[in-house]
Design goal:
The protein is about 30% helix and about 15% strand. With about 200 residues, it is of the alpha/beta class.
C-alpha cells in the first residue's frame, strides 16, 4: 500500500495482510531468535513458505517453486520486526494515517500463511473509517490474485469494481479466465509489467 498523506484522500486496497500468522510460532523459538537477533541482527535464515500453502493452482505452485526470489531468506532482525509490527497493529500502537479515507480489505478463510481472524479483528478496530469493506473469500488461500482460476476471476472483478467505484465508473470489464491468467494489454497499469495478449502473465 502506498502511504497516504495526512492531507490526501488515501484509498487503500489490502490483500491477505500479515497482521498475525496462521500458525502461531513456537514461543521458545521466537524468544531465542530475538536474543540471537540482538547479537547478530543481520544474520540470514530461511523460512520459506511451501508453494502448496500459497495457492491451490498447480501451475502457480510450480512457478513459485522455481522463483529464486521466493526462497524465504530473511534476517533475524527482519523476522522480529514483522512479528512486532503485526502485534502493534492489533493492540493499536500503530494506526492508519489520517489521510486514509477508504479501505477495501480482502482475506481468504483458507489462508495458511497469514491469519484471517487477526486480519478481520484489525479491520473491525478501524472504527474511525466510514468507507470500509471487508471481503471474505471462503476457503481461499493466501494469494487471492493467484489462487484457482475460477476463484481469482471473482477477486479480479471485486478489485476492479471497487477501484472503479472510486473513480465514478459503474462496472468493470471482465475477460474470460484461462489457466494461464491472461492480462489484457488494453489496460496498462503503472508499475506493472503487462504480458502480450495470449501469453501467460508472471504471477
Amino acid at each position: 500500500c502506498q502511504r497516504a498523506r495526512d492531507q490526501g484522500d488515501g484509498r487503500w486496497l489490502v490483500e491477505s495482510p500479515l497482521i498475525g500468522l496462521a500458525k502461531k510460532p513456537n514461543s521458545v523459538t521466537v524468544f531465542m531468535g530475538r536474543i540471537a537477533g540482538k547479537v547478530m541482527p543481520h544474520h540470514q535464515i530461511k523460512q520459506a513458505v511451501p508453494p502448496v500453502e500459497l495457492s491451490r493452482d498447480p501451475l502457480v505452485q510450480q512457478s513459485l517453486a522455481g522463483d529464486a526470489m521466493c526462497d524465504g531468506t530473511g534476517t533475524l532482525e527482519m523476522f522480529a520486526n514483522m512479528l512486532d509490527r503485526g502485534g502493534s497493529l492489533v493492540d493499536g500502537r500503530t494506526r492508519l494515517d489520517k489521510g486514509v479515507r477508504a479501505l477495501w480489505h480482502a482475506h481468504g478463510t483458507g489462508d495458511k500463511v497469514t491469519s484471517y481472524q487477526a486480519s478481520k479483528l484489525w479491520f473491525e478496530q478501524q472504527t474511525q473509517l466510514e468507507d470500509k469493506t471487508f471481503k471474505t473469500y471462503e476457503g481461499e488461500y493466501h494469494q487471492l490474485h493467484a489462487d484457482l482460476p475460477e476463484t481469482r476471476a471473482v477477486f479480479y472483478k471485486d478489485v476492479g469494481d471497487w477501484i472503479l467505484s472510486k473513480t465514478g465508473e459503474k462496472e468493470s470489464v471482465t475477460d474470460p479466465v484461462t489457466k494461464t491468467a491472461e492480462i489484457p494489454t488494453e489496460v496498462p497499469v503503472e508499475g506493472v509489467d503487462v504480458a502480450p495478449a495470449g501469453e501467460q502473465a508472471k504471477l
